[in-house]
Amino acid sequence: MARERPGMCHQFSLAWGEDDLCTRFGVRILPADLLPHFSIAPGDRALVVMGSGPREAVMMQWGLVPHAAADPAKGTRPINARAESLYEKPLFRDLVQSRRCLVPATGFFEWKAPRRSPWYFRMQDGSPFAFAGLYDRWQGPAGATLATFAILTTEPNPLVAAIHKRMPVILSREDEACWLSGSALADADRRRIVAPFPAGAMEAYPVSDRANDPACDDEQAIRPVSRLLQE
Question: For the chain, N or C: smaller number of CB within 10 Å?
Fold first, then answer.
């Protein structure tokens, strides 16, 4: 599938040592085809962690194809799911009950209007973190399986709000196990999980216009450049 330009939210990166990723996300092994990526775009394959018991790390394609789809090549393939309306949308209602996952990342991009200037967001210490994700598996008539995922979005924290009106749902370390549990979420847990991640734990800086091209998947895509926030 051809790589797409980012929609509302977003491109992200995952560039970290494999041993550290195993330790951080509690998995024994990582997929053999996992490589560092500085620009992961819709349609790309990315690392997903799932499982309420032993955790499993697999590669899935970004852009959700529901298991009931007649043809994965037709129809919309949402990359995001609004946290506020998860239980109102038939596409997501069942998935949030039983097919929740972590989407590991080391940062994500958003674009500041009106010039669509790219900015990069990450943890202040540069460590990996996890988006809240939903996944599904489509089974073809010939037995082929397509595993796909979407990332939840929520209202922005003050840091992201200066650039964009939405942000991905970033899970705290304590809430990752709750999100991966096979149980239905209590209302209090759901409200806490989808709340904007604390801005004080994050940092943001402008990056070059190379980020406007999702095919530019190298370290230069996340290097800071000089640009005023008030631009």
Answer: C
